[in-house]
């Protein structure tokens, strides 16, 4: 069979670039389409003649491999965009994806996802948006808290962010080196207003504006907050500390992040070390 990479995928990637997609997004589409193409070729088919049954079978194949509904849906999104490019949007209509069992699962970014996100944001060279993403990801503050920040809440001498609250019991979060660096690059661009993050018209940013900006990168502020909390828990930070940093009123909210991240072998090791007789 003729390799369709050069005749189908490459023009599609060029089309994505013309549509203003970032290089990371184009790269992701390329990788996923190559995997889909390989799967098709193993079944003696090609991208140029893909149909709805192929798409549904591929989704089922991904599910059988253990891909999560979130991941599978993202891959379907790639195929959906590709089908629009082919002018065959109907091949992705009514594709069924098994929903995950309703557990107390929290949607977070992986380390790789974080790297891709930060790289993509930096590509656009908007110092304000870069500072916003780093602040949300490295402090875990809520989008409402971010929008309420004033420049006076940032202490670059002591590397601290003072997060105010309506109750008057604000919290203080240490700034990472990266957050500090990007805030220092952004702050000179906002030399007029008291508000930390402002629009081009020098008005305090709204939650809707921030969420709209984040949506362009496929994330939301809540997911960045979840990622912050989960990263701390995974590094062994105590629930009490994470709860205070995140501003949780109830520590039971924080406990959600301490879900089944421990391997069974670690449980076994814990029992042996605790109850084994001394030699």
Account of the 3D structure:
- By secondary structure, the protein is mostly helical.
- It folds into 2 domains: 5-92, DNA polymerase, domain 1 (Orthogonal Bundle), CATH 1.10.150.130; 111-258, hpI Integrase, Chain A (Orthogonal Bundle).
- It contains 13 helices and 3 strands; from the N terminus they run αααααααβββαααααα.
- The protein has helices at residues 5-18, 23-41, 52-64, 69-85, 111-123, 127-139, 143-148, 177-186, 207-215, 221-234, 239-246, 251-255, 264-275, and strands at residues 154-155, 160-163, 171-174.
- A 3-stranded antiparallel beta sheet has the order 1-2-3, with no helix packed on it.
- Helix 6 (127-139) packs antiparallel against helix 8 (177-186).
- The N and C termini lie far apart (66 Å).
- 24% of the residues are buried.
- Residues 1-6 have low confidence and may be disordered.
Short description:
This protein is mainly alpha-helical.
SSE pattern: HHHHHHHEEEHHHHHH
Uncertain segments of ≥5 residues (pLDDT<50)? 1-6
Assembly type of the chains comes to single chain
CATH topology-level fold name of the largest domain: hpI Integrase, Chain A
Q: Kindly state the percentage of residues in helix.
A: 40-55%
Give the beta-strand count: 3
Q: In CATH, what is the class of the largest domain?
A: Mainly Alpha
CATH architecture of the largest domain: Orthogonal Bundle
Class by alpha and beta content = mainly alpha
Largest sheet: number of strands, sense, barrel closure: 3 strands, antiparallel
The backbone outline, from C-alpha atoms, is globular
Count every helix, treating DSSP H or I runs of 4 or more residues as helices: 13
CATH homologous superfamily assignment of the largest domain: Intergrase catalytic core
Distance between the termini: 66 Å
Rg over CA atoms, rounded to whole Å, is 23 Å
Beta-strand share of residues: under 5%
The residue-averaged pLDDT reads: 86
Strand order of the largest sheet: 1-2-3
Indicate how many domains the architecture comprises. Answer: 2
